[in-house]
Amino acid sequence: MKILKENAGPLTNFEVLDFLRSRGAAKDPTRVLASVAPSEFKVYDYLEHTAASSQTKESITEFAAQCKPYKLTKSEIINIVNIRPSSSVEIYPLIENLEARLEESVEELVELVLQVFPSSEEQSKSDE
After folding, report:
1. Residue 18: CB partners within 8 Å, gap ≥ 6?
2. Residue 125: its pLDDT value, please?
3. What is the pLDDT of residues 52-109, one digit of tens each?
4. Residue of 22, 46, 54, 45 lying closest to 35 (CA atoms)
5. 6-21 burial string, b = 16+ CB within 10 Å, else e?
């Protein structure tokens, strides 16, 4: 793998998880054969139990596009994608001056998050 642009910007947890999978972290249960450092396996194990494990590139792109009316910064969108807040209480610390900027749209944004990034419990129910 070749680095095309160094420090291109912050990554979502999904992008980090996808990168670790591409290096073989998911394919080596013995953790000996893959060219992944032990610390990277720990990051992989952690991310497998977060919202990142059920996200896709398409869902993240869709969410970013649907967030345009809210005028969120890139870092705010990344924080929302990484944390996947499921209530307005969880979204307040992620967006600066939330009440002044979004006023009544806070619940709409939470609904958008729940719609685009369903919880792993909801996904397993819909798969059955």
Report:
1. 57
2. 43
3. 888 999 999 999 999 998 899 999 999 999 999 998 899 989 988 888 888 788 889 9
4. 22
5. eeeeeebbbbbbbebe
Distances (CA, A) of 19 to 1, 37, 38, 66, 128: 10, 13, 15, 25, 29
Nearest to 79 by CA among 103, 99, 60: 60
pLDDT confidence of residue 29? 65
Q: Residue 101 has which token pair?
A: 């900027």
Per-residue pLDDT tens digits for 5-28: 666 788 899 998 988 888 877 766
Two tokens at 98? 């939330």
CA 57 vs CA 63, 96, 101, 118: distances in Å: 10, 26, 27, 14
